[in-house]
Amino acid sequence: MVVMSVVDDVETAGRIVETEAYVGPHDDASHAAARTGRTLRNESMFGAPGIAYVYRIYGIHWCLNVVTDSVDFPAAVLIRALEPVSGLEEMRRRRMVRGKPVSDQALTSGPGRLAQALGITGVLDAHPLDRPPLVVLPGDPPEAADVIQGPRIGITRAADWPLRFHIRGNRWVSR
Question: What's the pLDDT tens digit per position in 33-42?
Answer without folding.
Answer: 999 999 999 9
